[in-house]
Task: structure prediction
Amino acid sequence: MLLLLITGIACLAISAFQLTRPRVIAERDRRLAIERVRSSSDAAPPSTDERRSLLRMVAVPLARVHRKLWRRQTDHDITTALARAGVTRRLTAELFMAGRVGLTGLGILAGFTLAHGAGRFLVALFFAAAGILIPGFVLSKAATRRSERIDSELPHFVDQLGLVIEAGMSFDAAVTYLADVNEGPLADEMKRVLTELRVGESRKTAIRNFAVRVGSDEAMAFANAVLASDQLGSPLSGILRAQASDLRHRRQMYAEERAQKAPVKMLLPMAIFILPVMFVLILAPAFLGSHGLL
Result:
């Protein structure tokens, strides 16, 4: 009796495995396709495969050094920063880490080569700090510029998207049409969203990935509006019109904020470059006259 029970349980387990196997395989293939899409921008043409392999041979040990020295910045953090800067087609997290370690090593070598005596340690330390900080600073500035450009294009894009959807197109068809007729980083991001949708990614995940890659409040607000329309079943065109108005209001507030900060930022250049010249022009005649030079 026990043997029959064990045999029955084994048969049920095998049947459940056979029933769920196609779904597991399909899910695995979908995940692999999504990963290939996300990494397709890093694929090199056949003519550059050899050069890529040589770069990888050099980059792997240097990236390993980076992971040991900079534990607080993971590969995922660097990949996200590269995606926000829009340089994932030319640069990977591994190459970025290798480049930072290489610049730091070259800075130390240049410091010991150019300087002499005890000062060489200070010069080497300065160049090493520059090699560490400059790549991250440049990447951050590139991400900020790209995010600002996407934010400036987003209100007009949302207006167009609402009009096209009101004309009878679905969301995916409208995004496809606008991504084809427009140019710029926002159109590139929309094409990536569409590619993720075509390989089986859900709309929620694809839109969330777009907001994470851009990394701005405006992009997150647009993603939340689209997802809210899907979850609540409300008309997307009306939400997009309200969203476009809100995005323009955000841009206006941001411009006013920057305008209010401009006088404060002008104080330092004025104190360094303008005020000394004014003092010289005002006090020089009196000084020269008191010494009989005029």
